[in-house]
User: Fold these one by one.
Assistant:
Number 1:
Amino acid sequence: MSSGDQTTTATAGGSTSTGDQTTTVHVSDLPTLAGKDLGTSRWVEITQDHIDKFADLTGDRQWIHIDTERAKSSPYGTTLAHGFFTLSLSTVLLYELLEVEGTTSILNYGLNRVRFPSTNPAGSRVRMKVSVPTVEEVRGGYQITFALTFEREGQDKPVCVAELLFRYYGPE
């Protein structure tokens, strides 16, 4: 089995990457990432327990997410993960694909163009593909736009597509 085929269950504390190899770059070399593909993360199994915990944390306890019996009679036949749960995996999976050395701080600066084109049922596996369309210099560091595509195993249509903005600050 290739490393891209391995599954790791998502955990609150994170875990070790089993996807593509991690890219390591010094903060001063971040502009070299512009236009590059960073690869594909490990597969993450989406369990009902994860969905329930996310529902508890966010207060979004809509039945399609947590009522397994009622969801059986829905058009999907099962419960669905929250779109924002899928999106919340982006940070841990990004850290598995990119390590930036020499930073004094890293800030999640926000998101652009977030879409959830398809459902993510309980029991499915997802992984994240990452590329870097742009790297811009900002005061004291760089802002990177990461293009994220979350794929669900066995399905062509992505479950989430987004642009994630991070700011990396380095020694002055």
Note: Residues 3-11+20-169 form a domain with the Thiol Ester Dehydrase; Chain A fold (CATH 3.10.129.10).
Number 2:
Amino acid sequence: MRAILAAALLALAPAAPAAAQSSAAAAQAPVTVEYYYRIKWGASVDFKRLYEKNHAPLLREMQKSGFIRSIRVDEPYTHLAGGPRWDLRVTIVFRDAATAISDPEWDRIWGAASAKLFPDKAVFDAEEDRRFAMLEEHWDVIVNEVKGP
């Protein structure tokens, strides 16, 4: 997932040397990523329960550590057709591009938080495997705010 985000962010980066200064500023700017989950029919309640039990606490720990600025979880109010259907969207505003794609410090803090919050790694891994088995599809979208004219 982080490799896909890295490729997308690199594709958006300016190539001209004159843009190096603005690229450096852009690298320090917050990055917003929307994570979409299409859950198998009948598994929504269990998926959300496991998400809140296992994944959300880790995200909150990363927020406390300053890597994440905000986390928002949404579900659609209306029913969507099969193709474009998503059941849960998690929008995360990361501190900067490095945090969103590949930051060794993120990995270190995530590992420490995981060990502290979930000392029984076998149970945690089994529940995360079960949560992901409930998905039909999962995708990530890096979004940019469009300023008005």
Note: The chain has six helices and four strands.
Number 3:
Amino acid sequence: MPSGRTRCRIVFGLMLIAALVWSLTAPASAEDHDDDFVAVRTLTVHFVDGKYDVSRSQRSQLQQLAAQAQGIEGYMISVAASAPAAGSDPADQKLSMQRASAITVVLRLAGVPVANLIVVPATTGASQAAYRSAVVTLLQNKGSTGQ
């Protein structure tokens, strides 16, 4: 039986793979489907420069968002993570995906199915503070709201 740390790495790796697969098959962004979804709640997750660990307080906020989502019919959660401008582009993209994956792991452990997650690729041209954050948006399908 693998150690606790090894199990965490395995789970993290599987979640990263799931996030990557989903990002390839999911809509490019929530904005691409404004006609289909309405934003219910937005949460900004902040990271230490060059890191992808989700703080305890932000983990709690993500768990609350996941709990709120459970009561919404036709929901999706969009995760848009960015990385710092410094460094090589592949390293920036890796950090961005690690941040998105760390968030999706928290959401998955809080009961959000992979099918309800959209991982949006990192954006460029944002401020330095935006590069050290991710925007998590709880979306509801307009068909479920009667709009």
Note: Residues 23 and 93 are 13 Å apart (CA to CA).
